[in-house]
Amino acid sequence: MNCPPWPKGKKLVHLDLKGAPPRVEYLHKLIDLFSQLGADGLLVEYEDMFPYEGELKLLQATAQPAYSREEVLSIQEVAKCKGMEVIPLVQTFGHMEFVLKHRPMWSLRELAHCVGTLNPHKEEGVRLVMEMLRQVVELHPGLNTLHIGADEVYMLGEGEESKQWLASPGRTVEQLFLSHVTKVAKAIKDKWPHMTVIMWDDMMRGMSQDTLKASGLVGLVQPMLWDYNPNLEVDKTVSLLEKYCSAGMSDLWAASSFKGSTSVYTNVTSTQRHLENHLQWLNVAASLSAGINLKGIAITGWQRYDHLSVLCELIPVALPSLAACLQTLIHGQLSAEAQSKVTERLGVSSMEVEEMGSAADGTLLFPGRRLAESMVELNSLLNTDDIRFFENNMFVRGWFSPYQRQRKMVSPLITMQIHNEASMYLAMLQQKGEEVRGEMVQLYPDSTAQEWIEEHVSPVMAPLQRIIDEIAACVKEMVP
């Protein structure tokens, strides 16, 4: 079905900076590209890359320097020059791992072993959140909109203080969640009366209309309903948005995904998967009743599932996906015109990054193109059966089994063949890995390159190196 283009409202690109934070010069180029592709705003999740000061300085990243105050201002200036709004996202309840992992903050956890959830009963928790927000707002002159997170508040109600609170008749975990979010939203409105407050919707999905009406949140927040599934259920999503509207929350947002939602460790983005998600969101927008004011859509690009998980796809390999998703929203479908805009602007022959082809004559038409090409090639190499399952091939299992290695009773002729093949694969991985590292450090901190290589390349190289070393030791025992 062909849908109308995305209704009037912001198209925000989400920048998740809690992993692989781009060097600021690269970020400037990305913002320019986002604008050319049709985005008109940024949803920026700084996390530990924000230059917190004073007692909050311990929240800054240590693997690489946080952005400086000047760099944060420069990001806003580049966006402003392109007519793009910047909306900071600061977590205030769940997903506070980057705060609560620090020893001085341990006492503010809901549960000792749940690093992400803030204890809603401690006033110092609200003071902490408000100080984080104050510093972020003050470094965003003229800011009109804040996103306060509040998604996936795991283990809420499981702490001792929560259990005591819930022991009173009629009290529920839903009310516990709503009371904290309402307290934060009211504090924001008291301090900055003009501020629009957005929050993720997932903790409210099971709540009744009456519960939401009675929560005190109506008029304080604008829910952002997120769903990244390519098989998003349109009718169910429409009903949910209409429930929020009927509860008095008529200003609503959507959130889709262009990367970072396939699996926690995905390396290379599938454009088709994310494209289908956006086509479903267009169906949702076309099915809404007139009373709902859809303020916009955030096209999320998660870099980690949470602060303590591994890296998802880096931005360069996801740019064809982002371009296709934005153009699909603008045209209401992936029309020939939309496809042409993507392929011409990015200089690719396909919108799938694995099939985009090499840039002609060395022309790099999108920032990070060379890194994207190298990562695709390396990813393909890492996933070849001959390399990934080298230890299971016939010769290794037949002539260099653990039993044979332990007793150093091997065939020198065949084991040297195994040695030569393992050495060849190892050299290929080392060469391609260094190529990727060289490209990556131009766009990202050294720590990102180190993490990516250790996460994806080293585990594949280690068994090859081990076999090479063990063969050398075995053959030494059998050859004069």
What is the helix fraction of residues, given as a range? 40-55%
Low-confidence stretches: none
| Tally of helical runs | 18
Structural class: alpha/beta
Record the strand order, biggest sheet: 3-2-1-10-9-8-7-6
Give the N-to-C terminal Cα separation.
74 Å
**Total beta-strand segments:** 10
InterPro entries: GH, Glyco_hydro_20_cat, HEXDC-like
GO molecular function, one term: beta-N-acetylhexosaminidase activity
Keywords: Hydrolase
Protein name: beta-N-acetylhexosaminidase
Structure description:
This protein has 480 residues and is α/β, with parallel strands linked by helices. It is 48% helix and 11% strand. The chain has 18 helices and 10 strands. It has helices at 24-37, 69-81, 97-100, 123-138, 160-166, 173-191, 209-213, 234-246, 271-287, 315-331, 336-346, 369-382, 385-388, 394-399, 402-407, 412-443, 446-456, 458-478, and strands spanning 10-16, 41-45, 85-88, 109-111, 114-118, 145-147, 196-200, 222-226, 251-259, 293-301. Strands 3-2-1-10-9-8-7-6 form an 8-stranded parallel β-sheet. Strands 4-5 form a two-stranded antiparallel sheet. Helix 8 (234-246) packs across helix 9 (271-287) and helix 12 runs antiparallel to helix 16. It is globular. Keywords: Hydrolase. It is an enzyme of class 3 (hydrolase). Its EC number is 3.2.1.52. GO terms for molecular function: beta-N-acetylhexosaminidase activity. Residues 63-208 form the Glycoside hydrolase family 20 catalytic domain.
